């Protein structure tokens, strides 16, 4: 579903992605972890071309992402992206936030968009918040709206960049629960997170990055219990 072939990226002189090779299968759940500044956000932002690359190729469901001829709007419509910050429109209701892209990008009728938006709000446990404004919701609820907004586009892939890092501890669980449910539906997911419990429960693979490189990959239990590199072991000891 997602393929990185010798991907290299620089920010000026900083080699931020160094020969990344990676294959993510349909339905696979990949957790990416690593120290701050190791290139995790940059890696997933390249998947829907929020960032350009200088060398190599990324192919999403057969589409060469960084090819000039690639239709970006169509590509991004198929890839849901959930950020650390929720990026909801404060002047629009929850329902309007979730309906926006289906109407504007998928060109759905308002009635169809409302139907799918309500379905997705139910899926994230927020049926009764459709008429509320983002400012009236807790952080955990806002992040669940952001997930519903991504799902309303019926994406092929969901990308998450530290989705629980901005949340108060008591709200992390409700967001992770929604993500776990998504896994059971077979969604292809790429999740930057340090939530080890989540990774152990649902990840097919954990990928550890440091200084722009993939240093180690493995099954979650193998990775966390028996890391193969000093860098990974050191990192794991710090997040425990
Ligand atoms: P992570 O998500 O693992 O914390 P990032 O992918 O955000 O790491 O950043 C990797 C490196 O690239 C860091 O050194 C960061 O400072 C740098 N970086 C990120 N975005 C930019 C940018 N737009 N311009 C210049 N440097 C950047
Ligand atoms: Mg980051």
TrEMBL record:
Looking up PANTHER family in the UniProt record yields: AMINO ACID IMPORT ATP-BINDING PROTEIN (PTHR43166), PHOSPHONATES IMPORT ATP-BINDING PROTEIN PHNC (PTHR43166:SF4)
Domain ABC transporter, chain residue ranges per copy:
2-236
Assigned protein family? Belongs to the ABC transporter superfamily.
The protein's matches in InterPro entries, at most eight in alphabetical order, are given as: AAA+_ATPase (IPR003593), ABC_ATPase_HisP-typ (IPR030679), ABC_transporter-like_ATP-bd (IPR003439), ABC_transporter-like_CS (IPR017871), MetN_ABC_transporter-like (IPR050086), P-loop_NTPase (IPR027417)
Checking Pfam families in the record gives:
ABC_tran (PF00005)
State if Nucleotide-binding is listed as a keyword: yes
> Which terms in the Gene Ontology molecular function aspect does this entry carry?
ABC-type amino acid transporter activity; ATP binding; ATP hydrolysis activity
Native organism is Desulfotignum phosphitoxidans DSM 13687
* Keywords annotated in UniProt: ATP-binding, Nucleotide-binding, Transport
Source species, domain of life: Bacteria
Q: Does the keyword Cell division apply?
A: no
Q: What is this protein called?
A: Glutamine transport ATP-binding protein GlnQ
């Amino acid at each position: 579903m997602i393929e990185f072939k010798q991907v290299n990226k620089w920010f000026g002189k900083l080699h931020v992605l160094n020969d990344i090779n990676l294959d993510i299968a349909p339905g696979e759940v990949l957790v990416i972890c690593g120290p701050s500044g190791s290139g995790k956000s940059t890696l997933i932002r390249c998947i829907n071309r929020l960032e350009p690359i200088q060398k190599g190729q990324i192919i999403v469901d057969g589409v060469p992402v960084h090819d000039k001829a690639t239709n970006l709007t169509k590509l991004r419509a198929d890839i849901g992206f959930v950020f650390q910050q929720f990026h909801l429109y404060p002047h629009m209701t929850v329902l309007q936030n979730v309906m926006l892209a289906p109407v504007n990008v998928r060109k759905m009728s308002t009635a169809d968009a409302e139907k799918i938006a309500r379905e997705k709000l139910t899926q994230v446990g927020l049926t009764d918040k459709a008429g509320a404004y983002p400012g009236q919701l807790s952080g955990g609820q806002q992040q669940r709206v952001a997930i519903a907004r991504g799902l309303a586009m019926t994406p092929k892939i969901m990308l998450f960049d530290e989705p629980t890092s901005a949340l108060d501890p008591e709200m992390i669980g409700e967001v992770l629960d929604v993500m776990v449910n998504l896994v059971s539906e077979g969604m292809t997911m790429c999740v930057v997170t340090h939530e080890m419990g989540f990774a152990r429960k649902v990840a097919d693979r954990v990928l550890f990055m440091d200084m722009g490189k993939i240093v180690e990959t493995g099954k979650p239990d193998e990775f966390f219990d028996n890391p193969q590199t000093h860098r990974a072991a050191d990192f794991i000891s710090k997040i425990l």
